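Morning F.,

Quick status update on the modeling queue. The single chain you submitted on Monday has been processed. Sequence for confirmation:
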Amino acid sequence: MTNFNTEEDILDLAHIDSLCTALGPERLGKLLTRFLETIDEAIQKLVTAIDAQDSENVLEESHQLKGVARNLGVLSVGLVAQHIEEACRSEQYESAYAQKSDLEAAHQACKKALADYLEKLT
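C-alpha cells below.
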C-alpha cells in the first residue's frame, strides 16, 4: 500500500504553482474546484470497473483519471491511476484490481490537500 503522508506525496506544488503563474489564481482555483467536484464520480467509475473486473473499462478510466490528475499536479491519484493502467496494459489484471485501496487512499488524501491549497489560494 502506498502512503500519502505528506503534501509532497500528494501534490506537485511546483507544477501547481506554475499553473497558477500561467493561468492566474482565479482560473486555477476554478479548475481545481471543478476537479474536486468531479473526482468522486471519476473514482467511483474506476472502482466500479475494478469491482466488476472489467479490464477494458479499468484501462480506459485509469488512463483518463491519470491524465487529468497529472495535468493538475495531483500526484497521488495520478500515480495510482498510472500503476493501474500499466498493470492492465501488461495484462496483470489482478495487480491492477489489487490497487483499489491505494486508489481510495489517494482520493481521500488529494481531496484534503487540494481543499487546503484552495484555502491558501484565496
